Amino acid sequence: SLIQQGMCEDGLIPVNYWSGAFCLPAYVFPHEDDVKYYIKCEDENLGLLDSYLMEKADGTIVWTTIDTEDLSTHDEASWYVSFTPDNQYYQIRNASTGHYISYNNGRFKALNRTSITGNENFHLIRGRQDVSIGDMKVRGYWLIHPENNANPNTLTANKDGSTSAVSLNLYDSGSNQRWVFLDADDVDAFDQGSKKFYQADLKDLIAQIRKLKRVSHTEDVADADQTLEAALEEITAQSKVATGANDVKSLVADAREAAMIFLSSVTPTDIEKPFDLTFMIDNAAINDNSGWSDTPTFSYSCCEYFQRTFDFYQTLTNMPKGTYKLTAQAFQRPGSYVNAMNDYDNGRNNVSAQLYIGQKAGKIRHIGDGATETSLASGTVQAGSQSLYIPDNMASASAYFNKKRYYNEVLSTTTRQGTSFRIGLRGDISNSGYWTIFDDFHLLFYGSATIDQITAVDETLISPDQKKRIVHGVFDLQGRRIADSLEGLPQGIYIVDGRKVLVR
Prior knowledge:
- By secondary structure, the chain is an alpha+beta fold.
- 21% of the residues lie in helices and 33% in strands.
- It has eight helices and 33 strands.
- Strands 17, 18, 19, 21, 24, 27 and 29 form a seven-stranded mixed sheet that branches.
- α2 runs antiparallel to α3, α2 runs parallel beside α4 and α3 packs antiparallel against α4.
- The radius of gyration is 27 Å and the shape is globular.
- The termini are far apart.
């Protein structure tokens, strides 16, 4: 009875749940047969603010950016909706071609039909939560091919602008499968809401760029500061008189361009205080897979892969030339905790996972690098010859990350202005017990400073107070964590907070 009630509360007409059949169709989207509707994906990262579902010349269904003021000349992006009371299914027909959205052989496509077949009938299910853009609130709908099972295929937006048929994800997280239907009046209101969204985004971006300007730096190109400020003032002025969402969106791109020109023209005065470009990473804290290429397991503010290969990345575009450092909290346990720690104690590091930026990559920390004499959280285990504590689940790994026990970094230099490169984490071994977990990416920029300058050995004597103020721990030249501070260590070269330090 609770299952039946839950389905009804979600707007679903239930059938016998235990039969494995899907819920029954119903009239859930009030519509007018002669009104043109414009369809958007509900997901902000898949065109909600500026893109529309349209039919291409070959019948392929895609979502693409179209200026609101140009919609009247793009009937291929408008659709008529009809409903058949006898079977409770909807049909969707393109206003330009008259073709119906049809499902056949595992794909959605717009086809010419003189009469409706079962392939043109679709089951709409209304989303549970409002989509708020400015003052406007709407709901998205799953567009489902009727199938007698619990995971029928549904029209799904892909990151490259295409659509595909994917098994239904009936959770709220399935925003890439929900579609918002707008009439002409709704489109205008939605555009004004989108404009406000982009204006807020632009304001935040300009604030971040001005933070970069406040970093102590030298100008490699004369008047770099003045040029940046003039560009930002002009962009701000244009934002105030912009009429549509895409006008403001183009200003966001202009602001990023101004920041890129500035960054390629300056170098931080203090290598220890570079420009922080983490705001240019989409979802750097990795709260979900938004902005990233893959979907690991998410929990406790971190994500993991277990016994599988992976490539978790995003591509940064139009970036300034210069030297970058990518950092993250991450470790891999190469095998069971017993075998991994026994190998570690015997000098064998079987870690395969790599943190990478562009063409540069480096192994991430072995789980033994962050081991502690006392447990930092519940969910740890003791292993190895010294019976040290290591994380054994996501909750304990998160606690160790919060203590900065598994710091990683990799540096890369690009000499091409406006370059694009990937940042991420990858692993090519899926052996038994291999566990990779990570969180919290950061991107730092050093201008024209070279990698050798950034990683140069600091031969300055370390004061007692400085020895205590170490953030990420002390590592030997093989990358093994050996202490929390330099106190009591013999003279030699160590890696401290990503730098080589000579202790005399």
